[in-house]
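Input for the complex:
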Amino acid sequence: MDIHEYQAKEILSRFNVEVPKGALAYSPEQAAYRTHELGGDKWIVKAQVHAGGRGKAGGVKLCQSQDEVYDACNDMFGRKLVTHQTGPQGKGIYRVYVESAVQIDHEIYLGFVLDRSSQRVMIVASTEGGMEIEEISADRPESIVRSTVEPAVGLQEFQAREIAFNLGIEPGLVQHMVRTLQGCYRAFLEFDATMVEINPLVVTGDNRVVALDAKMSFDDNALFRHPQISELRDKSQEDPRESRAADRGLSYVGLDGNIGCIVNGAGLAMATMDTIKLAGGAPANFLDIGGGASPERVAKAFRLVLSDDNVQAVLVNIFAGINRCDWVAEGVVLALKSLQLDIPVVVRLAGTNVEEGQKILAKSGLPIIRATSLMEAAERAVGAWQNDLVQATKMRAAL
Ligand code: GDP
Ligand code: MN
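Predicted:
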């Protein structure tokens, strides 16, 4: 789960990370009023969306008067911000954060990520702050400092000092940098984060180390033990298809194609998507119903896939080990009977209780297209989808 910049800053500041003075606003009027509370004469207005790259997309504005703050916000509120991380549909701006501007001397990139191969938290830092880490690793790979933390002892001072020296931090600021690094590490650990990114972390003109931006992501599987984090969830920033699925305990990833996939197991889901591509189609989603799925769960998955308007054909591909083909078949029948369906559905079952499953599908009297192999299933799904398209075009032409 992701949270907003202002929320991440609030958390990090509790762990001794210095952040600029700032205040949240839900309207241009409130944002303008915030300038009084903050004082000073320069402010940064920042769109709060769950994506980076806001600066280049017009989501971060430097303002020198209350009117400029008002105008900047007036332009942002209710608009979709499209950055290179949001996809073409963008993310809605419903909150802005107003901050006292900071005078930047230089910018540093600082990230904490989970490195799966070493099974440790890895610190990634660079003197080339402000650029995205992908750009830094392409253009200035030699500027990147990496350091893994030994979990038994945590981030030690000497290790944090070494990172600070490698970043060329002036001696008088090393202690401040150490405090910042250790604070981020403790926040990461305390809340089961999967990522903490401060880009840029800046050294200011008046010699302070300040987090100008902050991003945190959390392990969804650990949210149950952090209610103070899970309450920060903002569904307006999520793909509605994915939040609906998450609320129903299904793992679902929305994609851009037209063939809905209902599959068990992530590996089989990947293979199914590849095979659809091979057959000339494109998957509309990745949905894994998991092991031991009851008919109700299958029906739920079906409703979810069908609620996506892009879906013009459905492919159910089950290789039942722990699952049972008869339960899956019952789920498919249950869903199709309760829904008005006007798109082709292809079902391929293999494994435990496959004969019973086939019988249930055959007896249902529903127009389900059955297939034996995965290739056949994908070809039939793509074929039926293309055929439907041709029919629809003909109908439109005839009108
Ligand atoms: P992002 O584009 O979504 O990563 O948003 P950031 O919060 O990183 O802001 C983008 C850029 O705006 C930063 O890299 C800074 O260069 C600049 N910026 C943000 N806050 C301030 C500030 O207080 N003072 C100055 N001078 N620049 C700022
Ligand atoms: Mn940034």
